Amino acid sequence: MISMRDFKVGWRQLLAEPGWSAMVLGGLAIGFAVCLLLGGYVRYALSVNHAIPDSSHLYQVTMRYTIPGQSAEWFGNAPVALRSAAVSAGIPAKMTMIMPYSPSLNAGGLVKKVDGINVDADFPEMFGVSALAGDLKQALARPDGLAITEKMAITLFGTSSVLGRTVLSGGRTFTVRAVVPTPSRATTVPYDVIAGFESPLWQDGNKSNTLTNWGSIAGYLVFKPLPGIPATQVMDGLQKLAANTPLRNQLSPAMLAELGNKPLIMLRSIDLASLYLAKGVTGIRQGSPLMLLSLAVTAALILLLAMVNYINLATVRTVRRQREIGVRKILGASIKRVAAQFIAESVLVVLMANSLGLLLGWLLAPAFQSLLGVTFDALFDVPALAVYYAVSVLCGVLAGAYPAWLAASVHADQALAGRGDAETVQGLWLRRVLTIVQFSVAMGLSAVTLAIAWQTGFAIRQPSGFEAEHVLVVESGRAASGNPAVMTSLLERLKHLPGIDSVAASMEAVGRNNWSSRSEMRVGNHPYHSMHWIGVERDFFPAIGVRPVAGRVFNPARDLDTAKVAVINRRAVKALGFSSETAILGQTLEGGGEAVTIIGVVPDLRHHTLRESSKPMVYLLADTSMRNVINIRISGDMATVRSAVEQQWRQAFPDEVFEAKSGTLILSDGYREELRVFKMLSAATVVALLLAAFGIYVLSAYSVQRRAREIVLRKLYGARRGDIARLISCEFVWLLGISAVTGLPVAMLAILNYLSGYVETAPIGGWTLLAALLVSVLVAALSTLRHLRSAMAMRPGDVLRGG
Amino acid sequence: MIKLRNLSKIHHTGEVQTRALNGITLDIDAGDYVAVTGPSGCGKSTLLSMLGLLDTPDGGEYWFDGQNVAGWSESRLNALRRGRIGYIFQSFNLIESLNVAENVELALEYSAVPVRERKARVAAVLERLGVAHRAGHRPSQLSGGQQQRVAIARALVLTPSLLLADEPTGNLDTAHGDEVMKMLRDINGDGTTVIMVTHSPAHAAQANRTIHLLDGKVVVDAMQLA
Question: What value of ipTM does the predicted structure carry?
Answer without folding.
Answer: 0.72
